[in-house]
Each structure stands twice: as C-alpha cells, then as structure tokens.
Amino acid sequence: MVRMGFRLILGAQPGIEVVGEAADGAACVELARRLRPDVCLVDIRMPKLDGLDVTRALAGPGVHNPMRVVVITTFDQDDYVHTALRNGACGFLLKDAPPSLLIEAVRAAARGDALVSPAVTVRLL
C-alpha cells in the first residue's frame, strides 16, 4: 500500500515518471541496475536485502556509475541516517514527511543535490 501511495504521489508530478517497483531488496537492485532510473526510492525495511544494503549496492563506495538513492523509513534512528549516507544515499526521509517533501527529495536527487528530512537534520546538528 505504501508503494502504491508513493507511485500515485510521484506519478502525478510533471517531469516525474515511475518506471519500476520492487517488493524486496534483491529485486530492487536487479531492477534498478537494468532500468537505470534517475532516482531510486528505497525503504530501509525490505525483505531479502534491506534498504541500507541496497543503497550500498547501487550507490556505495567503489560502485561504478553510482545511482542516486533516496532512503525512506518510519524508523527515526541516527545510525540509519549515518549508514544510509555513508552507503551513498543522497536523501533520507521519514515516512511521515508531507508529500511535498518526498517530491522535493526526488527532484533534488535528480539534479544532483541532497535532501535530508528537516527533523533529522536539526537533531543531527
């Protein structure tokens, strides 16, 4: 249901096209490598391979031609933020963020910028 909500929100935006969805982390890595989307939106908690490992596989240190990955989660934990960013994420959002922040995070990643949820940023500073 969450994936469907993200698809509806993002797919309704001009200039954004949702090109794929995956039910688990292993499928996400395979699909992303095949489709090469401009931005990958990755949940931390996924079956088979979690979002932090997916991020490292797609954007981590040593990855040739890394992808732009935005990590999203319900779990507001500092170690998740640090690991996601260390693994190459260019965005980190909490699932309770408003749709406008999700859209801005995807747009920021697509243009090569980064966006971290303001609540997380304030706490980490």
UniProtKB/TrEMBL annotation:
Which SMART domains does the protein's record reference?
Answer: REC
Task: Identify residues that carry 4-aspartylphosphate.
Answer: 43
Q: Known InterPro entries for this protein? A: CheY-like_superfamily, NreC/VraR/RcsB-like_REC, Sig_transdc_resp-reg_receiver, WalR-like
MF term (GO), any? DNA binding
* Segments forming domain Response regulatory: 1-110
Q: Which UniProt keywords apply?
A: DNA-binding, Phosphoprotein, Transcription, Transcription regulation
Biological process terms from the Gene Ontology for this record are: phosphorelay signal transduction system
Q: What is this protein called?
A: LuxR family transcriptional regulator
Q: Which organism is it from?
A: Streptomyces viridochromogenes
